[in-house]
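alcohol dehydrogenase
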Amino acid sequence: MKAAMLYEYDPAVNINLKLEEVKPPEITAPDEVIVRVGAAGLCRTDLHIIEGIWKPTMDPEGHLLPYIMGHENAGWVEDVGSGVKSVKPGDAVICHPFRSCGVCLNCRHGEDMHCEAGSFPGLGMNGGFAEYFVTSERSLIKLKKGIVPLEVAPLADAGITAYRVAKKAARLLRPGGYCVLLGIGGLGHISLQSLHAISGCRIIAIDKEPAAQKLAKELGADVVLDGGPNVIEEVREITGGGAHVVIDFVGELGLENLCWKMVRKGGQLFVVGYGGKIEMPTIQLVIEEINIGGSLVGNYTELVELMELNADGKVKMHYTEYNLADINTAIDDFKHRRFTGRGVIVP
Ligand SMILES: [Zn+2]
Ligand SMILES: [Zn+2]
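Predicted structure tokens:
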């Protein structure tokens, strides 16, 4: 099969993935499923993997490469292990990115992402930048009639990450409350739509790219800001003292230290993008009673809920399609933000 292989790390993300003919995956356990990839979303995490910031956790010995990235996958079931009952070859599916075990206590609580014995195809093991990849039956959600893998693949990760944090935010937001979304990219534009669907809050979208600002307006953001030097004052002015919730989809490049300054007293900052370091005086944390927390991907049932919103037309993925042969162009375009929404790789 055709696959895009990562051979080396590069902090500047200038290296190319190598397109190669490799042996297709085989079923090695009764619960495994081989998926013919219909589309795979290109994620900032893929750039971070190339940069090497995951190397200490994922590849401490340095023996992992080469392998195939790609963790936002949808496609069709190609083959199933002997124990698989809920899907059959030919079924169109979206793949929850995490292969959770199903039997640990965290799994039984429903939090797949906290599974003690899970694995993540595309992160440290072969994923979907190829014609086929292998996952487990537990990860699959069958697509409803008329839903095409290409149009939903990034919902598998970008989508649920954006939806999970929107759901957490919605619990804290009353109608009239303000939510700031910093970064209207692959995740931000899904959170915006999700918040509209599940909350009565007002949304302030911040992005320096005109195309992203335009998308935010089209998707119904109440206020769109360009993130200029006065952005903190602007937000504090519009919201009358700070937003009730701020969601940071960037988490690096210095923006991580703008976000907590936009939160009102008693408000909440959720960090989703990563790579930077938050620095704030502890006294500020105390006197403002600001809450800061992270949000990680999402669980299986959250992906089910998101697919329902998608089927009802309430949350749509905006994407640009690239052939697998052009994956290095896609990565370069992503680095330079030449597309809005998500880049999607089609083998
Ligand atoms: Zn991702
Ligand atoms: Zn588990």
